[in-house]
Amino acid sequence: MSIRRTRPGRPRLVPPTTTSPPREQILHAAAQLFVTKGFAGTSTREIADAVGIRQASLYYHFTSKDEILAELLERSVRPTVDQVERIEQLAAPESPETALYALALVDVRTLAEAPDNIGLLATHPDVTSSEAFDAFRGIRAELADAYGRIARTAAPGVATAAEPGHLGDMLMHLVEVTTSLRGSGVPIHDATAAAIASTCLRACGIPESRIASAAASAATLLDDLPKNPGHH
Amino acid sequence: MSIRRTRPGRPRLVPPTTTSPPREQILHAAAQLFVTKGFAGTSTREIADAVGIRQASLYYHFTSKDEILAELLERSVRPTVDQVERIEQLAAPESPETALYALALVDVRTLAEAPDNIGLLATHPDVTSSEAFDAFRGIRAELADAYGRIARTAAPGVATAAEPGHLGDMLMHLVEVTTSLRGSGVPIHDATAAAIASTCLRACGIPESRIASAAASAATLLDDLPKNPGHH
């Protein structure tokens, strides 16, 4: 079944690279179908057809469609969450502003590189209402907590005014503009990522002069971080 | 068909009020089903069943499932966009900070009151990829433009640093945290709305002292606005 609803700037169904491992080919084809047709509107049969394998072979790699989406969704947050501890060790508490800038930057990059802009599905009702994605929601909550924790250290007064429990959610949402821009066909350049990270610091009431120095320190800090296997 | 996947804090299928106009009953039942089961996973038959009418009667009010979702989505942005002109007339250009605060506050309220948290579906692939929702995407782009235009007037220096074209998108995304909080069962109090609006101003580099006065002026301004028919 071919996909006719593609639009400019939307992911397109391209022939899968037959040299990638089958598991990766399945994930890639599924991501394209989920983002184009919706999760409920996609069958495992269609995913198998897109890869050019039989449905039985697909079930050798994944027990269900839920499991495929769960893995894809994890790839939109796991690479960021995996860096949180190192970022906090290297930057906070001496320079929580650098930590916040670095976290936002890593998060923008993860979302910009996640397969087929799968981050778009994070707030999808299928995902927020099914227990199959409890693990993903747990990782996402961990990320919101990290934003909140670092932001509270960076700007204690403002964090209280903006309700500690929600500041992390607000910053995470702000950074998720990445998926929306990407979905509209806007390329996520380094300047775009820097603008989003700077806006996060501004949202915490951090003045311009300190944002500039946080940006410089974050660049150094990220060079020191072990390369994330999810990035290329 | 009953819905078994409801979770704490999620919209629940409740018997429709038989005193509301049928069109409203259809919209309400559809919203609950779309948010719980996804758009692709819901049939017009199920919507008709939930209302207790025949499918033929549903088609008397709406020509398609797309048309139902389009109207629901419009209700998550139209009440805000309808206030933009008045907000800008009353506040900008003398006080663009007040205009931005007021816009964010009206937007939080619209999202907090939209039927069954339907704002959650705004970035849904079904919506972003189908031409049936071109009109909705147009109104949403209008809202992002308004955020950007007002923010540029409120903080011209910062707006340039944060790329003029994207500042509006970032602020709109930040405010959409409302749907995410609401989806997690967090009540959207006046204090929550104020925290989100203040964070928008901070994100534009506006200092605390001026945020406090913008909040006070915005309260007066909103009292002067004609009551939005979509609000209760």
Looking at this protein, list some descriptive labels:
homodimer; 232 residues; Arc Repressor Mutant, subunit A; Tetracycline Repressor, domain 2; 13 helices; 66% helix; disordered N terminus
Describe this structure as you would to a colleague.
2 copies of one chain form a homodimer. Chain A is an all-alpha fold and 232 residues long. Chain A has 13 helices and no strands. The interface between A and B is large, with 51 and 51 residues.
Query: Helicity level of chain A, as a percent range?
Result: 55-70%
Q: For the record, give the distance between the C-alpha atoms at the N and C termini of chain A, rounded to a whole number.
A: 31 Å
Q: Specify the CATH architecture of the largest domain in chain A.
A: Orthogonal Bundle
Most strands sheet of chain A = none
Largest interface summary: A-B, 51 and 51 residues
Gyration radius of chain A, to the nearest Å?
19 Å
- Envelope shape of chain A: elongated
Q: Which CATH first-tier class of the largest domain in chain A would you pick?
A: Mainly Alpha
Strand element count of chain A = 0
The chain-level structural class of chain A is mainly alpha
| Helix/strand order of chain A | HHHHHHHHHHHHH
Instruction: Give the domain tally of chain A.
Output: 2
CATH topology of the largest domain in chain A: Tetracycline Repressor, domain 2
| Oligomer category | homodimer
Q: What is the mean pLDDT of chain A? A: 84
